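Data card: per-record layout.
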Amino acid sequence: MLSLVDAEHLHAALCRALDGHPAPPAAPECRQPVQTSRGNAHIAGRA
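The structure for this 47-residue chain is written out next.
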């Protein structure tokens, strides 16, 4: 079983490893592209 700290490190490592690869439609929210504009950020495709 992973500790919370280990899980956070694994999550960050996976995000870095997958950066630049398109996320499949069923991917979790953290894999969806983020759009920013003047201090506002939202996940693309979300209201």
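Known properties of this structure: The longest strand covers residues 34-37. The chain has a mean pLDDT of 75.

See the next section for split statistics.
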